[in-house]
Each structure stands twice: as structure tokens, then as C-alpha cells.
Amino acid sequence: MAKVESFSLDHTKVLAPYVRLIAEEKGKNGDVISNYDLRLVQPNENAIPTAGLHTIEHVLAGLLRDRIDGVIDCSPFGCRTGFHLIVWGEHSTKEIAEALKGALEDIVNKVEWKDVPGTDKYSCGNYRDHSLFSAKEWSKDILAKGISSEPFERKEV
Ligand SMILES: [Zn+2]
Does residue 1 belong to any structural domain of this protein? Predict the structure, then answer.
């Protein structure tokens, strides 16, 4: 099986919440795609419940595109401790961490249920499994801990 960088990261050494550059991939024409680890909670100590994570996913899809040019995708990790963010071009982890912080602040302070996209059977694969309450409470907790632009030391933005 191909070796995947994410599985060689020592998950016991990281200090969440943080943003980490996983890899920059260059295409045949020189285009760069960057893959980030947006780690919201400490691995093996916490995991965001599915309904809250699902709502954070739907809302981040728009809020991160409002803040970062070239967002391709932002999808949750199966372990429910964070998200992959795939973006065109090169961006500093500080820029990504600031965008994530602003997006989570919006979830806590501004987002209402009517603002959450994809909450019916036509636009989501499991529309019954959403919780804006959980999304807000977990976002508050993550913001209180601060978001670092480095995974192994705290450099909060
Ligand atoms: Zn969905």
C-alpha cells in the first residue's frame, strides 16, 4: 500500500488546536495544491460528536471560501478530531489559522440555523444528523484553547 504522510505523524506529540501543512503537490503544469491538517481537538483525548462535526463541515464550506482564495475541499477526518483542507496555491499556516479562527468565531456569534446550508434530504446525505448547538459549543471550546499555526508548539493566532 502507498505510504501516506498523515499516518506517520506522531499523534501523541501534537498540541491541538492547530493548523499544519501536510503537503504541497505540484501538477504537470506547475500548479500547486496544498493540503492542510486543521486539528480542532486533541487526538485520542477528544472527538467532536458526529452531528456537531457535520454542521461545522457544512458551514466551514462557505466560511472558509469567503476567507481563503482557491479552496477546493474541506472534509472531516474519520477520527472526528478535525478536517483536511485542500487549496490551490501556497498559503502560510498563519493565514489558514486566522481564517479558521474567523470562521469559528462566526459559527459562535453569527450563524443561525437558517444559515446552515444543506439541511434537507435534497442537499445532504444524512440531513437528520446535524446540531448547530453542538457546533457552537465545540467551536467555543476550540477558540478558548486558541488556534496555533504550528502543530508541535503553541503559536496562537
Ligand atoms: Zn451533509
Answer: no
